[in-house]
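User:
I would dearly like some help making sense of a protein record. Take your time, and here it is.
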Amino acid sequence: MFGFRFIKFQPNEYVLRYRGNKIIQQGNGLSFNYFAPRTSLVVVPTKSTEVPFMFDEVTVDFQEVNIQGQTTFRIKDPKQLSELLNYSVDSYSTKYISDDPTKISKRIVNLVRVLIKKSLNQLKLKEAIQASEILAKKILEEIRQDDEVKMFGVEIMGLSILAISPNKETARALEAQTREEILKAADIAIYERRNSSIEQERIVKENELATELAIENKQREIKENELATEIAVEHKQREILQTKLETRMIEQQKQAEIDAERIKGDTELESQRKKLIKMQVENAKEMSDAKAYELTASMKALEGVSPDVIQSLANMDMEPNKLIAMAFKDIGEKADKIGQLNITPDLLQELLKNK
């Protein structure tokens, strides 16, 4: 009423309130009463703004590509930007009185386009198609260092390139080329797989042959070891047999020496015995000669003596039982002249007792 109004701004809106050419109030999210005819309002949004872009460019090999992406920015220095662009709003309707607020987005998109074009002029088509992420990082660094962006007090928060696509004809050609390359790679892969299979089979066979050869070598080595062992055993047995023979020969030599010594001793003993027997024979002969001479002398002395006297002389030193035996003998010789003979048990008992 009568030009007096109340207004309230959002927290992400930076407001400069002018009266004449003088700023009387500024800040984010202000609310105040003002007199519209004498008040000028400048509102700079400080929120982050996403600006999509899409344009066509040409690579170094003269291939047209379509670039799609978006950039995000915010106004870092609203006062500085308000001095370069007109962000004034109508005091009654609070609408911008110029199209300057839309120019900052266009300026940033144009700057992005210029930088992308500069980079694409150094890349071929295939390289450009695959370089979206690398290109986005490069453009982001370059745009942050741009003097115009700094002059407007704008902060570039991010930039992303969603796609770099060739036109339809080129895309089909690339698809065909890629398809051929894929088919060729598949053929090469099949060929390599077959070669690998053949190589693996060859390696397996070589390993099998190597294993068989190793087994044969091991078996031959085992047989050689067995033969060597048998030969060593034979040599050992021969050495043992030779040692036994040598030992037996030594034993036989020792036994022969012992037998020779024994024979020598027996010979000497027999010689001594022969001498002894000879001496015994000579002694016996001399004793026989002595007895014969004694008997001859005794017989000569008894010549002409009665046999009964000689018998009596022979019985003089005889034992009683022998005398009784001689008596029985005489009785037997004269049994035809004896009528009856009584022999008492006492006599026989005495005879047996003396015996």
